[in-house]
């Protein structure tokens, strides 16, 4: 023990209360383990702001400990309370310290029926060892955060004994093996963060049975195989982060079934509020609260999300071995704010209807095999502040808009056939974007098709009826006779003989044909021609 450190060390002492008396603000180490101490924890324990190690294990100490008791113990590194009757009440958080040692010495403490611990936050410490099977003793837990420690081995099946668990953070450790099947027993689980470990195997298909899941974060592991289709059943999902694994196959086309991503984020999200925690303390309207937070990679950098986390909508499937095209169904996720499909083996064109994702702020499709032109509709994404289309096989003119031209040339480099700002390569003056040509050609084709169809329907609608029905034919030509004669045009009048000569010269045998049709029919046709095409003799 260093001389500069004050400490109280007692052997075979018997007292009704641990000796925390006087001004001990500079106390660094307190060893009271393996004595016959009894009574309750002193209330002024939390005033030892310089305390580095606290060992009170193997005693008969009772009482309740919560975050209030240890809120000022910012330098605490070692905590030993095993074999005591201490009850953890509601919330216990000693996150962001340098707490070291085996996690089992803490998790395997004997719990009793009075324990009401709901939130256990030991994140950002130096805890090590295996998680063990002692977690089954903490069945009142609703929030568990063991992230950013040095924990190893497999995640035990006993994790499924935490039936009330709503949020679980095991990120940034060295866990191996797969996701335990017993996790299906956690029926109200809303947040699962297993990122940055050494987990392997397939993503369990039964994950789709946890319909309360709103956040799945499995990035930076060693998962392989296809993305399970059952993940589309998670209608409340707002964050899907499977980046940096070894997943293969195609992107599920059913992602449009995730309705939470297909709606505009609301400032009041009733579903995500179930992951928050607050409780009123006493009659002074003081509240003890706990709010979830996540470290997410958006626009190429890590950011911490806390208060706005319920409003975030993210899909990140980057750095995998996914193939095929970009399914148009994913573009139905209108509320999506960040889409990252980079560093895969995706092929085909960028879908034209990407304009429907009007709340998109970040789009990364780089390092794939996408071809064709950048769709003109991408200029409709007015919230877009990060775009990376580099290292694909895109071609043609970059769509013109103030927003797109403001991006860096690095965001579109690696596409030799692209031209236009922000690249230095200019496009030919007479070059028209292929998308515009296709639209114009398509409109022209439909015009001709419509005109032809209209002519055919109109012509045969009239002539077919006259050819098939004698009564209609007689009535029609009688009407023409009367109409022509009312205009003063008759075969014997001026122009009539001239028309007859033209008809006989251009159509030999026409007189015989018309005579065979009858005098009335001949006269009607003759008069109609005289009316429509008058010839000045």
Strand content: 15-25%
Q: Could you give the distance between the termini?
A: 133 Å
Q: Number of helical segments? A: 8
> Whole-number average pLDDT?
75
Structural class by sheet pairing and helices: alpha/beta
Largest sheet: 12 strands, parallel
> Portion of residues in helices?
10-25%
Computed CA radius of gyration, to the nearest angstrom: 40 Å
The order of strands across the largest sheet is: 10-12-14-16-18-20-22-28-30-32-34-35
State the shape: elongated
What's the total count of β strands?
35
Poorly predicted runs? 1-19, 280-287, 432-437, 506-522
Structural topology:
Blueprint: E1 7-9, E2 29-31, E3 38-40, E4 53-55, E5 60-62, E6 64-65, H1 67-70, E7 78-80, E8 87-88, E9 91-93, E10 100-102, H2 104-107, E11 119-121, E12 126-130, E13 143-145, E14 150-154, E15 167-169, E16 174-177, E17 191-193, E18 198-201, E19 215-217, E20 222-226, E21 239-241, E22 246-250, E23 277-281, E24 286-290, E25 294-298, E26 301-305, E27 314-316, E28 321-324, E29 338-340, E30 345-348, E31 362-364, E32 369-372, E33 386-388, E34 393-397, H3 402-405, E35 417-419, H4 434-468, H5 470-486, H6 496-506, H7 510-517, H8 519-532
Parallel strand pairs: 1-2, 2-4, 3-5, 4-7, 6-8, 9-11, 10-12, 11-13, 12-14, 13-15, 14-16, 15-17, 16-18, 17-19, 18-20, 19-21, 20-22, 21-27, 22-28, 27-29, 28-30, 29-31, 30-32, 31-33, 32-34, 34-35
Antiparallel strand pairs: 23-24, 25-26
Helix pairs in contact: 4-5, 5-8, 7-8
